[in-house]
Amino acid sequence: MAEEVRVRFAPSPTGYLHIGGARTALFNWLYARNLGGTFILRIEDTDRTRSTDEYIDAIIEGMKWLALDWDEGPYRQTDRFDVYRNYVSKLIDEGKAYNCYCSPEELEARRQEALAQGRTPKYDGRCRNLKEAVAGRVPAVRFRMPQEGYTVVDDMIRGKVEFENSQLDDLIILRSDGTPTYNFTVVVDDVDMKITHVIRGDDHLNNTPKQMQLYSAFGYPMPKFAHLPMILGADKTRLSKRHGATSVMAYHEMGYLPDALINYLVRLGWSYGDQEVFTREELIKYFNFDNVGKAAAVFNPEKLLWLNQQYIMSLSPETLSELVVPFLRKENLISEGQSLDMGWLARAVRTLQERSKTLVELAKVLRYYIVEYVGYDEKAKNKFLNEKSLSLLIELKETLGGLSVFSHDSIEGIFRSIVEKHGIKLGGLAQPVRVAMTGGTESPGIFEVLEIMGKEKTIKRLQRAIETIEGKK
């Protein structure tokens, strides 16, 4: 039987879940789901000065919003300090680690000296063979790196990458204050959690040879590595806040759908033929590392926006109505406890979903269906709400008021009889009515708009438009 695949997403809670981290989580999740493996969430929170519970909560919130469900965890490294110290003791007992009494000030002075002489800063190993403790100093603990030969990373994306062991430091695995370091804890956790594949950003590639030596020291089978290419902004520099939103939950706030963001993120580095839009089931079925490229991916906000619109158009109006309700509240169109006729809202949403790229846009355009009265665009008001349209609007209001069935067909019949009677084009009546109903000159079909507005609201808005025109006299 093949070994069970076990992967992990291990973010540091020093900020919100960002685009790059979400893609790393996604590739781990897809790989595990494709092969029936286990996906583990591990919080690497040993940086006590920058890690916060707020960021941990935000990472978990982002993962849940993206529906990247984990099978084990979330584990926190700060709950595992005793485990790390036991592994340190084991390495010391086996002669694979040693106490280092060099102070931070001494190490920094030597680093500056090396730089001044044009040498690569590297620990000089002066405590490597000490036999006695140095009085008055609390030591850090260093791992003994091999000093000859090469460490070769056999990467699933990049192929073989060689590192000279002579360039590798005897890395500190336990600081003098008793806290373990990143390169050490990550390996201990991977060993304890039986991780088989380490899938992460290529900014970790230089750490990998150091970590591989630790895996060997622990006698643990070497996991397979896959280092994902970085994500760049449009200017081909590393993606950052200057390129726009980088936090996953910022896209939630902007009205993006999680499946659209997932679909977009997976295409930042992975492809499957010419297909652009995928269901989750398709992503799980097709995903592997054979189709992950080595080149950095460029983040294109316009492409993401286009993709989000495709997803909005593909949803049922009923589903979309449920999703847009929180955004209606943010726009102050409905109050927190206010009940809404969801069947009616779905009808309104259906008329607008092809015109909306985000849930925020959809909520904003739904305004004219929901509010009591609309404000008029000044240019549209001057062009269409005037003496020329006054008598037409009065006649329409009176005729519509007599309808017993306020339906698309009956409304259309009245419009056509009025324009035929006055020998004008449909737009000569429809545009003034559109401004009266929506405040502007663009909307779905006017008969459909009025039907959804309902008779009472339609009559009120026509009356207000009439009074607006009469007020100009």
TrEMBL record:
Record-annotated Glutamyl/glutaminyl-tRNA synthetase class Ib catalytic domain positions: 4-306
Name of the protein described by the UniProt record: Glutamate--tRNA ligase
Stretches assigned to the Aminoacyl-tRNA synthetase class I anticodon-binding domain: 320-466
UniProt EC number: 6.1.1.17
Pfam families: Anticodon_2 (PF19269), tRNA-synt_1c (PF00749)
Quaternary structure (record): Monomer.
Entry's Gene Ontology BP terms: glutamyl-tRNA aminoacylation
UniProt xrefs under HAMAP family: Glu_tRNA_synth_type1
Source species taxonomy: Bacteria, Pseudomonadati, Nitrospirota, Nitrospiria, Nitrospirales
Localization annotation: Cytoplasm
MF GO annotations: ATP binding; glutamate-tRNA ligase activity; tRNA binding; zinc ion binding
Keyword Ion transport: no
Role: Catalyzes the attachment of glutamate to tRNA(Glu) in a two-step reaction: glutamate is first activated by ATP to form Glu-AMP and then transferred to the acceptor end of tRNA(Glu).
Superkingdom as given in the UniProt entry: Bacteria
Residues annotated for ATP binding in this entry: K241
Keyword Calcium in annotation: no
EC class: ligase
InterPro entries the record matches: aa-tRNA-synth_I_cd-bd, aa-tRNA-synth_I_codon-bd_sub2, aa-tRNA-synth_I_CS, aa_tRNA-synth_I_cd-bd_sf, Glu-tRNA-ligase_bac/mito, Glu/Gln-tRNA-synth, Glu/Gln-tRNA-synth_Ib_cat-dom, GluQ/Sye
